[in-house]
Amino acid sequence: MFLADKIKQAADCLSHAEALLIGAGAGMSAAAGFDFTDKAAFARDYPGMLQYGFNCKMNMMANFSVPQELLWGYYLQHVKETRFEPGTNPTYQDLLAIAERLKNYFVITTNADGLFERNNFEKTRIHTPQGDYKLVQCLTPCTTQTWDIKPVIEQYLPLVDKATQKLPRNQCPKCPNCGGPIFLNVRGGNWFVEEPWIEGALRYKKWLSKNQHRRIVVIDIGSGYSTPMWVRWPAEELVRRNPNARLIRMNTLHPEVPDDIKKQSISFSESANEILAQLNVTLSAKVDSLPSFLV
């Protein structure tokens, strides 16, 4: 099937949907220009890291094999750039326009970069089960408390030596309760503090319970097999259990869908930024013919 035909088919599904579930993995951020495998950008932005054998951000994802002064020397800059500097993004704005047409939507994302929130998706319609870079926690953990990372960045980032990408020895952030090491509140081990995300999980469960048997469309963007239990597999199972559900998968690396739901699925191997832009244009052209429950 030609790309234009698949775009039209996806637009038709969305035009008749009663609910929209958006699932997003690392491929969504990559499509929006935040690629953790980009070696050239890494060498430009983190030249001090090259001497240790690291050549992309993916190498440093929850990498506790390095000393604390290097771990934090990297993450202070990385979080500042990734979580707080980028403004709105065209790819996320195209997806937001699609979501707002349907109104009845929910987002589940494994990304910790806060880009959905920063692109004006409703906070109460976002669940981030893997955590968020905006919080830090004790690594023990000695408490279920979490803390805002911004004061940590403001205090420690100016101390990082650009030549070594390290903090001075014994100048790493510490837990205010026990004095032990802290890290980002992201799911990287059994130390992960779940408490900040329980409310979002409950809202997601409630929304899903209400909408899973309706004419629901699942847009699954860039979720692979690293943590398929959060987005990829639940999306497939939801469609499998509901003959009126449809799956729109956008994934440059893993666009495949199981054989038993292929007739309910539309799969794109092209980049999500291209697909979402075209899909948004196609839906805009169909707006006058949308059913009343979508207006």
Features:
3-stranded antiparallel beta sheet; disordered C terminus; 15% strand; 9 strands; single chain; alpha/beta
Explain what this protein looks like in three dimensions.
There is one protein chain. The protein is α/β, with parallel strands linked by helices. It has two domains: 3-33 and 88-130 and 195-294, TPP-binding domain (Rossmann fold), CATH 3.40.50.1220; 39-85 and 132-186, 2-Layer Sandwich (SIR2/SIRT2 'Small Domain'), CATH 3.30.1600. Helix content is 36%, strand content 15%. The protein contains ten helices and nine strands. The protein has helices spanning 3-15, 26-31, 39-45, 68-84, 90-102, 115-118, 150-156, 198-211, 232-241, 272-285; strands at 19-24, 105-109, 126-127, 131-138, 146-148, 182-186, 216-221, 246-250, 265-268. The strands form two sheets. A six-stranded parallel beta sheet has the order 3-2-1-7-8-9, with helices on both faces. Helix 1 crosses helix 10, helix 4 (68-84) crosses helix 7 (150-156) and helix 5 (90-102) packs across helix 10 (272-285). The longest helix has 17 residues, at 68-84. The two termini are 30 Å apart. The model is unreliable at 288-295 (pLDDT under 50).
Summarize the structure.
By secondary structure, this protein is α/β, with parallel strands linked by helices. The protein has 10 helices and 9 strands.
CATH homologous superfamily label of the largest domain: TPP-binding domain
Structural class from helices and strands?
Answer: alpha/beta
Strand order of the largest sheet: 3-2-1-7-8-9
Helix content: 25-40%
